[in-house]
# Entry
Amino acid sequence: MLLKKMNTLDLIKLTQNTLILTPNERLSRRLHKLYGKQMAAQNHLVWEAPCILSISNWLRQLYQEAIDSGLIMQLLLSDIQFQTLGQTLGKTLFKNKDFIQPQKTIIDMLKARKLLKQWQVNYSENLLTETYQTKESLLFNEFISMLENELAKNNYFTIDELPDKLKQVAIAKIMNVEKIIVFSFDEVTPQYKDFLSALEKKMIPIQYLDWRTLKSERTIHPLPSLEQEYYAMANWAKNQLSAGNQNIVCIVPDLTTSRPLIARIFYEVFHPQALFSSHSMSPLFNISGGEPLSNLPMFVALFNFLALFQEQANYQTISQFILSPFIAFAETEKFSRIKLDLALRNTVLETCLYDDRLLLDQLAELTPHLAKIWQEIRQNEPSKQMILPSSWINWLTQLIKIIGWPGERILNSYEFQQLEQGYTVFNDLITLDKFCGKITFTQLMQLLKETANNLPFQIKTIDAPVQVLGMLEASGNLFDCIWIAGLTDKAWPPPVKPNPYIPYELQARLNMPHGSSRRQYDYSLFMMQGWVQSSANVHFSYAEYEGDEPLSPSPLLNEFAAKITSFNRHEQVLPCHLMLKNQVEILEELPILPCPFTFENAFGSSLFQQQINCPFQAFAIQRLKSQKFEPPQTSWDRRLRGKNLHAVMEKLWKKWQHSNTLNALSEEELDIQIDEAVTAILKRNLFSLYKRSHDYFKLEKGRFINIIRDWVSIEKTRKPFKVTEMEYKLSCTYQMQDDSGYSHEINLNFRIDRIDLTDAGEWILIDYKTNEEKPMHWLNPMSKPQMPLYATHFEPHFDGIAYACLHPASQKMHFAGLSREDNLLPDVKAFNGIKETEINSWNKLTHYWEEQLNIVASDFMIGNVAIKPRTPQTCDNCHLSTLCRIIK
# Structure
């Protein structure tokens, strides 16, 4: 069984009555493709497929033939069946034991069993000697004994035992080959060697061949950072493709971790136009080591849907479900569902029941199709009982039909392959009845997520000319050129990771994978020697820094003679930036964008505040209708509390109407009326919170009562008054004529929180605030126009304006305002003029406000859209920075 090197590979001659075994499926496909080319070169139109298989596929094929021939009567468990059986037995084992991560412990012990099978170690003989008796080995033996007994009792066996099982039967009877070639293996495990030796003893010749004999030119590239290293690798691959090479490979040892960054960079380099176009493209490269199925949008949508059945579903889960394109009528109701999401975002708390009354009302009003789906979902809720996985999958299949997953639009090839793989998960779960028994809905969710998380999705594509592979996937192949990245001393050789349930000394002595530093060094060096012999053009690279931390090259690079070079930094510039140079269009900023002569809809008082803050802010919000995408409310914020305080005060004053009624109440009667008003308002507006958490509702109710009680004590100190209006609606119109003689007009609608009339005939305008406000903002310069706007359009006249500052009970509550005369309101003094101005009377103050408001209105109507924030703090509270692009 001597390993032979080949300078040329004649597959036609080599495969005659011969089975070729490869270490992986990728090399098997490559040899099939090469065989086809050689047959076509000899003018064959059709030919019989050669017998070239990866060793794992060959063993499965032999098992199936042995089953059909009656040579094996045992059932081979799938990976998920074996893992589920192990987890079920583990629950029994750990029932009275204290383990932080029992699931990980089971996974590690199953991996240990696999290693011992591959290295043909009898754990009962080797692990239970006095030398190796540890807490871990005793636990492992207890678990393995339970597992082996369960397998034997049910006549099961696992993929780890397949070579041993096949060796025990007359497998030569079902093999139609005269010879076996073990082709381009980096390492053959003792278990495989023993199996192949058994075949050799049965007169089936075994030959070991390797075609990696190339002499290579090697280059080492130190790059400043990991990102620049990947850009250099991507640019190099693109240049090699342009030079005519069609078999280019990039090897990344930690591909699983780096895959998202590599995918982004390769798309930027190979398909820069994809950044500016929505149409799908056929990539010139393929990245192996796919994402877990559970991370893909289609399955995120499915898991969000299932999460709605849990006791509490948060806003994020509901939002993702509503906006998912994988739900029925998603395209038909696309914009309505966006409106629904915005409505919920602004009105519900972070945690809400999926049958929340507010949610159902919004569904029925905005999205009738989704409302119907919601109704059917509620009629098919999951069982509260424990049932078998197959019964759960039947229920889930019906629910999937109800929601129309994966949606109404036509799936692209990428999504269709995801769907196919998803159904294989469902089919796998159906087979678990005997291995885990009856489970709850929560356990079903956990099982689904674990299965999907352990199943990487790799898109099936035609062989791309550029392949990005992990360390083992490139094993045994030949390439036009190779780039191996990530060769720092931290990453290569990979760190030692011995299995905790196999004695470390035993792993080191038997040279098990990851078992010792010597094994890691030797195996990594052997892998590099294989890569060097796989291509005539070999490039190594490493990053010099990870953030601020300096990195060193792998010591293994010293084993290979190579020239050290540095990449031209210009080649690492993002391709989209290079392309943009030819696409940039220079636009002249227009500070004036004239308004329409009239607007269809009326504005609110916020228009004036925005125009004063920054003209562009008013333009973007009022004319472009830009809205801030508010984060969901995770708790009661000031805005929500203020809204409910308004409602409580309105309810109380509708009942009292006059201060005399308030003053006539006893303390006990006042407390009862405040309690009733607060309870009614909070139950009405915060129904879901009341239904969900009585303790939290009680806490908020007490807080409201304290605030209202403290505020009412201030109202009782005032001279007699009557509340004549609440939420009083006012309308007004501003007009102007521009330099061209055209007339412009805007209409405003706004509401005054409350209007009081004293018994002496004085009118007072009041606005409730839950934060600190100061009347100085109404003076020169006028920076907050809300109250001046109310005052100048209220008829017949007004004698005072004030904020009612309803702070929490821990702070001082007060009126903050201006009045014509003293003692009109507590803490409010009469206006006595503005220093260094001619505004020295109440009437002149009113006239000043009218002038300032006219200037602001004209500024908006004439079309002033200059990006000119009033203060630096204006930008801190503005959501338009990505639109105006101001440099703060």
Summary: The domain at 3-72+165-210 is CATH 3.40.50 (Rossmann fold).
